[in-house]
């Protein structure tokens, strides 16, 4: 297909230009007044790419509350092809999703409200809810559905994968198929099943003892490591305010085993010698001290607000190190959420999503990594649902269809073909 597009662009450049111009004219005609459209460089099988700023209500229940610009990345291929809507959970960027290749589809990436460029001048946190975000997605689907009238598929990764499942439960008829990658559905603000899974999975890691020693060494030598974080902050021009550099060290140490399993790091990379520079660089690479700087905290505030109020999160396994921790006053994540606002947790919100998926969640594909701590909060559909659950043993939070076993990939391809009645383009082997 790529070669075909290349040949067409060489022999008939006006053909592709006219197609992209036609789409732009259609967007200008169909999108609401006030929508901004910018062209971008095109790649893959797409014929035209646009960055779109759509005016969305801050409160879908009260139009007088004002609007904000929601950033959307549209990659156009063919109005007769399926359309993939990507339900991001954070800020977004233009990138190609493997499902767009598999389906040879159009692709629409929707940045999550109140994140990155999709932020009103002043944030009223009470409007940052999953329900409001689902209304954003439904409005995007309704507007772009006037242009793309064939089958629609939703997908998302991590918090975006959770969003995919929530969206399916709220507007089941908006999409024909939902594909959630590593999308957790926690049962509490701090779901202790994640801690249990980390401790269980570490038993199978030959470097578990080394990781423990690295954590203890770092905490015991904080007088040398904290100044190194101070130097890092100066060099990278980042600031530590809400979290001090001493606290950042302790957070990073407690985060280490979670990150090790979540990102699928290798035991071969875990240092065998305990030296200040070696330990500092390993924790810096595996976790990142800048994760606790003010700039990162500000960027992730919207996500942590939702983790603390509706989505749930994980805690820190601190008990084994209590005698070595002297800078953290508590071990929860509320410090990363906005200050001065209510953080009451709605324990029933995701339960309603689980109930829907259990009773009515057909044509949903769940993809999980067996070693990913978030898999402790996975949803496994019952046998009576027409759904596909794939979990690859030993895989991490990075698992994608291209990393699955051949038989697992084939199960997904067959389900997509059966449900959508379209041709499937299997991913090429690496």
Which labels suit this protein?
430 residues; 2 domains; nine-stranded mixed β-sheet; single chain; alpha/beta; Rossmann fold; globular; 9 strands; 13% strand
Task: Explain the layout of strands and helices.
Elements: H1 2-11, H2 13-30, E1 36-40, E2 48-57, E3 67-76, E4 83-87, H3 98-103, E5 106-110, H4 130-144, E6 152-157, H5 159-170, E7 177-181, H6 192-202, H7 208-220, H8 222-236, H9 245-262, H10 276-286, H11 294-311, H12 349-360, E8 364-369, E9 388-392, H13 406-420
Parallel strand pairs: 4-5, 4-6, 6-7, 7-8, 8-9
Antiparallel strand pairs: 1-2, 2-3, 3-5
Written overview of the protein:
The structure is a single chain. The protein is an alpha/beta fold and 430 residues long. It has 2 domains: 259 residues, Alpha/Beta hydrolase fold, catalytic domain (Rossmann fold, 3-Layer(aba) Sandwich); 145 residues, no CATH class. The protein is built from 13 helices and 9 strands. Helix 5 links the parallel strand 6 and strand 7. Helix 4 packs across helix 5, helix 5 crosses helix 12 and helix 7 runs antiparallel to helix 9. The N terminus is likely disordered.
User: CATH architecture of the largest domain, please?
Assistant: 3-Layer(aba) Sandwich
Following the backbone from N to C, one meets helices and strands in this order, namely HHEEEEHEHEHEHHHHHHHEEH
CATH topology descriptor of the largest domain: Rossmann fold
Cα-atom radius of gyration: 23 Å
Question: Which regions are unreliable across 5 or more consecutive residues at pLDDT < 50?
Answer: 1-18
The CATH superfamily of the largest domain is identified as: Alpha/Beta hydrolase fold, catalytic domain
**Structural class, please?**
alpha/beta
The chain-level mean pLDDT equals: 95
Please give the order of strands in the largest beta sheet: 1-2-3-5-4-6-7-8-9
Which sheet architecture does the biggest sheet show? 9 strands, mixed
- Outline, from the CA principal axes? globular
């Amino acid at each position: 297909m790529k070669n075909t597009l290349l040949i067409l662009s060489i022999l008939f450049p006006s053909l592709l230009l006219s197609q992209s111009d036609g789409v732009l004219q259609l967007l200008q005609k169909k999108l609401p007044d006030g929508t901004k459209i910018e062209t971008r460089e095109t790649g893959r099988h797409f014929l035209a790419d646009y960055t779109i700023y759509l005016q969305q209500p801050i409160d879908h229940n009260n139009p007088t509350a004002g609007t904000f610009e929601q950033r959307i990345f549209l990659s156009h291929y063919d109005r007769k092809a399926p359309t993939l809507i990507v339900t991001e959970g954070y800020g977004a960027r233009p990138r190609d999703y493997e499902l767009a290749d598999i389906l040879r589809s159009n692709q629409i990436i929707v940045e999550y409200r109140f994140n990155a460029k999709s932020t009103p001048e002043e944030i009223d946190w009470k409007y940052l809810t999953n329900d409001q975000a689902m209304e954003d997605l439904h409005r995007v689907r309704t507007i772009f559905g006037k242009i793309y009238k064939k089958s629609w598929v939703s997908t998302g990764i991590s918090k975006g994968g959770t969003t995919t499942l929530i969206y399916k439960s709220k507007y089941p008829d908006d999409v024909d198929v939902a594909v959630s990658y590593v999308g957790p559905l926690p049962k509490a603000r701090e779901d202790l099943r994640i801690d249990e899974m980390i401790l269980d999975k570490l038993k199978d890691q030959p470097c578990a003892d080394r990781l423990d020693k690295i954590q203890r060494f770092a905490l015991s030598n904080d007088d040398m490591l904290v100044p190194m974080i101070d130097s890092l902050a100066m060099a990278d021009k980042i600031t530590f305010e809400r979290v001090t550099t001493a606290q950042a060290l302790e957070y990073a140490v407690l985060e280490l085993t979670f990150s090790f399993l979540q990102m699928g790091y290798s035991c071969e990379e875990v240092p065998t010698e305990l030296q200040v520079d070696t330990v500092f660089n390993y924790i810096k690479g595996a976790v990142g001290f800048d994760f606790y700087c003010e700039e990162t905290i500000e960027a992730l505030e919207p996500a942590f607000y939702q983790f603390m109020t509706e989505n749930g999160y994980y805690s820190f396994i601190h008990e084994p190190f209590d005698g070595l921790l002297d800078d953290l006053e508590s071990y929860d994540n509320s410090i990363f959420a906005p200050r001065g606002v209510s953080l009451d947790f709605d324990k029933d919100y995701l339960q309603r999503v689980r109930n829907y998926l259990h009773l009515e969640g057909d044509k949903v594909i769940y993809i999980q990594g067996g070693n990913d701590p978030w898999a402790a909060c996975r949803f496994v559909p019952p046998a009576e649902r027409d759904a596909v659950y794939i979990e690859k043993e030993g895989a991490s939070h990075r698992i994608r269809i291209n990393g699955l076993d051949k038989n697992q990939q084939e199960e997904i391809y067959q389900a997509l073909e059966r449900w959508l009645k379209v041709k499937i383009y299997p991913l090429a082997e690496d």
